[in-house]
Write a structure and sequence with these properties.
Strand content: 35-45%
Structural class: alpha+beta
Radius of gyration: 14 Å
CATH topology: OB fold (Dihydrolipoamide Acetyltransferase, E2P)
Shape: globular
């Protein structure tokens, strides 16, 4: 388990630094998954990534910068059951991620939006708070 976490942490910088992930939302690749949050990867830069287990597969869900999650009081915890609507995105290394458009936290009953009706990030043009 520790090796898997280390591999995940090492793979995230390549994605987090990839140019254009914020603008890479393709509604044609949008899927809906339901599963349990098994890990949350917080980084100084780049988006917060949550790992969601659906049956026997882990999906890496790209949410938003940590400052935005704090500002909007978005609460997702390990063990939460969630429904994620997101678009598939491939990193430069060929790893697949889902860029979240919306996450419904079934454990808390709250729904969080990450993209507007034009698929642009909701944090675009907002104050950047650390």
């Amino acid at each position: 388990m520790r090796i898997i976490i280390i591999i995940l942490i090492l793979s995230i910088p390549a994605f987090a630094n990839a140019q254009g992930w914020e603008e890479s939302y393709d509604p044609n690749t949008e899927i809906l998954i339901q599963g349990k949050v098994v890990d949350i990867v917080l980084r100084i830069r780049g988006p917060v990534v949550i790992e969601v287990l659906k049956k026997d597969r882990i999906y890496s869900i790209v949410t938003a910068p940590a400052w935005y999650l704090d500002q909007e009081k978005i609460k997702i915890s390990i063990g939460d059951e969630v429904v994620v609507r997101g678009a598939k995105f491939f990193s430069r290394k060929g790893e697949i991620f889902l860029i979240a458009r919306e996450i419904q936290n079934l454990s808390t009953g709250k729904t969080y939006l990450f993209r507007d009706e034009f698929m642009k990030p909701c944090w675009r043009g907002r104050g950047h708070h650390h």
